[in-house]
Design goal:
This protein is an alpha/beta fold and about 230 residues long. Helix content is about 15%, strand content about 45%. Helix 2 runs parallel beside helix 3.
């Protein structure tokens, strides 16, 4: 996916989940944070960031925070990006051959999954998880407890019981990462649920990303590891 109207800035502080102060062209601006996760290892004072200048409308802020440099590596922090890059990946035939239908945000029983896909040979539901927390080359999800995440991946098992294929796709929003692991220390219930669904028919996949200052795309498939 591509971004327009990108500017450089310096991270100053996070005011709340949705707003941060960024110094842009020497002026402190309030900026919309497109990620409600903690991202404590990325949102540090003095970090080099990239923001997108947005057009008018009824916005309270002029800019969206898109990505952050850490140790000379660029991390996309836009929580909408993983679904968009997975959609592009699916459209390009990256996961399935001969796709007949891609339907985003599809409700099934008690959940709304990120994608429903039909090919000539299968019908599948997909749940996408963006990952920003990276420690020593390993990515961890989640960086904060997510009861909603537990509910969704658990209900993918219901899809499997009903004859559908089901996928959890982790998108690590940076390059140079070769493994994803559930974050046992932060949310043990999510980690144990992921182990359960992986052993009961749900396919758990992970990819890292190629991130530039005005784009991000799926890069390569990486390992999913458990304790």
């Amino acid at each position: 996916m591509k971004y327009k109207n990108i500017k450089h800035g310096i991270f100053k502080k996070r005011i709340n989940r949705f707003v941060a102060e960024i110094v842009i062209d020497g002026v402190t601006e309030k900026c919309h944070v497109k990620n409600t996760g903690r991202c404590g290892e990325l949102f540090v004072v003095g970090a080099d960031v990239l923001v997108q200048e947005c057009d008018g409308g009824n916005r309270k802020t002029k800019y969206d925070l898109i990505s952050v440099y850490k140790d000379d590596k660029l991390f996309n922090v836009d929580s909408q990006s993983p679904n968009k890059v997975v959609n592009e990946f699916l459209q390009s035939g990256g996961l399935f051959e001969k796709i007949m239908l891609i339907k985003p945000e599809t409700k099934y029983k008690n959940s709304r999954f990120d994608f429903y896909v039909e090919t000539e040979t299968e019908k599948a539901f997909i749940e996408v998880k963006g990952v920003n927390l990276v420690i020593d080359g390993v990515a961890y999800f989640p960086d904060a407890p997510t009861d909603r995440g537990v509910k969704h991946i658990k209900e993918l098992c219901e899809c499997v019981k009903d004859g559908y294929n089901a996928y959890v796709i982790f998108v690590v929003q940076t390059a140079g990462v070769y493994s994803v692991m559930p974050n046992y220390d932060t949310h043990i219930e999510f980690a144990k649920t992921l182990e359960y669904v992986a052993n009961n028919g749900v396919k758990v996949l992970a990819y890292n990303s190629r991130v530039g200052e005005d784009f991000t795309v799926i890069n390569e498939k990486i390992d999913v590891s458990f304790r």
